[in-house]
Sequence to fold (100 residues):
Amino acid sequence: MKKVKSGGEEIEFFEEGDILSLYEKLFQAAGRRGVSGKLLEKTKKKILKLTKKGEKLIGKGKPDVNSLDNLCGTIKRLKDIVKDPPSYTGPVITEILKSI
Fold:
């Protein structure tokens, strides 16, 4: 994770390595709750695609505050699931993943 400044705001940006380790833990937590592996893979690809897009914009010096902030919020929600899996049921995790 690194901090990115854009328009006077400082936003947390999660790098690809952070996301891959998060998804390993999410597979274990969500898999026990009956969440489809296919859905997990699909959302993983989406998140990685958005991350790569964000990295390109940061590299060009033109980070989009809204998209990076949305991505950060999504990743934090996934981290919450990993931290406390018993508080989320399988259908709730499925709906969260579908909304990404």
